[in-house]
């Protein structure tokens, strides 16, 4: 498909596997100024937080040892906001 006929990307949402959705959500809210847009489960299994129209998704991973940050694989960032 030619580039001129493709739809524009108007929004992105990084997805992070985390051991505790509630704790990371609290941190993003209190320390970084994000607001909870959606949360599912009690305790939360999944949540979407956003700030200035930029969302971040969190999903609980039952085995935290399976979470491997990009940096541990030789990368630099898992996500970046500007």
Query: Oligomeric status of the shown chains?
Result: single chain
CATH H-level homologous superfamily name of the domain at 12-62: 2,3-Dihydroxybiphenyl 1,2-Dioxygenase, domain 1
Q: H/E series, N to C?
A: EHEEE
How would a crystallographer describe the biggest sheet?
Answer: 4 strands, mixed
Straight-line distance between termini: 30 Å
Task: Just give the CATH class of the domain at 12-62.
Answer: Alpha Beta
As a percent range, the share of helical residues equals 10-25%
Topology:
Elements: E1 15-18, H1 21-30, E2 35-40, E3 46-51, E4 54-60
Parallel strand pairs: 1-4
Antiparallel strand pairs: 2-3, 3-4
Structure, explained:
The protein has one helix spanning 21-30, and strands at residues 15-18, 35-40, 46-51, 54-60. The protein is an alpha+beta fold and 82 residues long. The chain has a domain at 12-62: 2,3-Dihydroxybiphenyl 1,2-Dioxygenase, domain 1 (Roll). A 4-stranded mixed sheet has the order 1-4-3-2, covered by helices on one side. A hairpin with a 5-residue loop joins β2 and β3. The relative contact order is 0.21.
Quick summary of this structure?
By secondary structure, the protein is α+β, with helices and mostly antiparallel strands. It contains one helix and four strands; from the N terminus they run βαβββ.
């Amino acid at each position: 498909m030619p580039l001129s006929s493709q739809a524009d990307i108007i929004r992105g949402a990084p997805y992070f596997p985390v051991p505790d959705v509630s704790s990371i959500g609290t941190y993003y809210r209190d320390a970084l100024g994000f607001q909870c847009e959606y949360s599912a489960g009690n305790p939360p299994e999944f949540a979407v937080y956003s700030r200035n129209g930029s969302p971040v998704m969190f999903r609980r991973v039952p085995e935290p040892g399976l979470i491997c940050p990009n940096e541990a694989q030789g990368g630099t960032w898992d996500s970046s906001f500007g």
